[in-house]
Every structure is written in C-alpha cells, then in structure tokens.
Amino acid sequence: MKINTTRFDVVEVDEDRIINFPRGVIGFKNMTRFCLLPYKEPIQWLQSVDDPDVAFIVSNPFVLFSDYSFKVEDFVEEYLDCKDIEDLMVLVILVVENSQLYANLRSPILVNSKNLKAAHLFIEDDSVPIKVLVPTVQKCGSGCGCSH
C-alpha cells in the first residue's frame, strides 16, 4: 500500500502492518489508521495513513527511561484483545521544544503486536510525568547509530 506523506514523500507499507486505533489518537479522534516508519533508533515516526500531514515522533519509553512503569488496567488488555502482556508494544510521543526532545510519559500508546489494534491512553497518576527531557543517547563510535 502506498501512503502519501508530507515528510517522507510516498512510502510503501504492507497493509498487514497498519496499526488500527478504533477510538483514534488523543486529539485526533477521527484518525484511526497509522503505520510505523523507522528513523534513527530508538526513534520512529507514527504516520497517519489517511492524512499526509499527521505524524508523531515516537519511541519505546523503556529504552529511554529504564525506570519507567505504569499499570495497565485489565479492560485495556481486553479492549486490545491481548492474551499476553508480552505482546504489547509501548510507545510514547516525543516533542521537540527549544531544540530539546521531551517525552510524554503519562500518555502511552499500547499496540497489540499480534493484531495491531492500538489504544492511546492517559494515565491518571500524578507520579508519572507528562513532560520529561529525553536523555542524550550515546553512540558506540562504530558509526552504526546504536547506543551500546
């Protein structure tokens, strides 16, 4: 499937890799179909399939913040039809502000990696920060871009 984007021109994505948000993304309730586009590890783009202008910078929060945690309510696993918590992919949206990269840890995106059904949550826990500076990822020096 070809997807028009304003940032990446036209990209080809397998239809079986489309992530479905039945209730949309927070602030974008009518946008329900997205795909992940690789960027520089650990960063990816969550690109809308239906609107070329809508894309979010995302990352696995556990790579950026080793102590990150939150409780997944049982109804979320049921909603995503997730039988094993290990099948959940967790992403957080990153924003650039004043040349700094920040993560919204209170609003994770959960994706069932088996059926690609997703939910964008808001955690009602004040101990989980909404905006936190993303630490600089050190490169290994081999030019591969990894962080080991």
Account of the protein in words:
The protein has 148 residues and is mainly β. Helix content is 7%, strand content 34%. Strands 3, 4, 5, 6, 7, 8, 9, 10 and 11 form a nine-stranded antiparallel beta sheet that branches. Mean pLDDT is 90; it is low at 138-148.
Name some characteristics of this structure.
single chain; 148 residues; mainly beta; BH3618-like; 9-stranded antiparallel beta sheet; two-stranded antiparallel ribbon; 11 strands; globular; disordered C terminus
Secondary-structure map with pairings?
Layout: E1 2-5, E2 9-12, E3 19-20, E4 33-38, E5 43-48, E6 55-59, H1 61-64, H2 74-79, E7 88-97, E8 100-103, E9 109-112, E10 118-120, E11 132-133
Antiparallel strand pairs: 1-2, 3-4, 4-5, 5-6, 6-7, 7-8, 7-9, 8-11, 9-10
Main CATH class: Mainly Beta
CATH architecture: Roll
Estimate the strand proportion: 25-35%
Number of strands: 11
Please name the fourth-level CATH homologous superfamily.
BH3618-like
Radius of gyration: 16 Å
What is the CATH topology classification name? BH3618-like
Largest sheet: 9 strands, antiparallel
State the helical fraction: under 10%
**What is the terminal-to-terminal distance?**
35 Å
Which series of helices and strands comes N to C? EEEEEEHHEEEEE
Number of domains: 1
Mean pLDDT: 90
Unreliable stretches covering 5 or more consecutive residues: 138-148
Figure out the total of helices.
2
Q: Overall 3D geometry?
A: globular
Class of secondary structure makeup = mainly beta
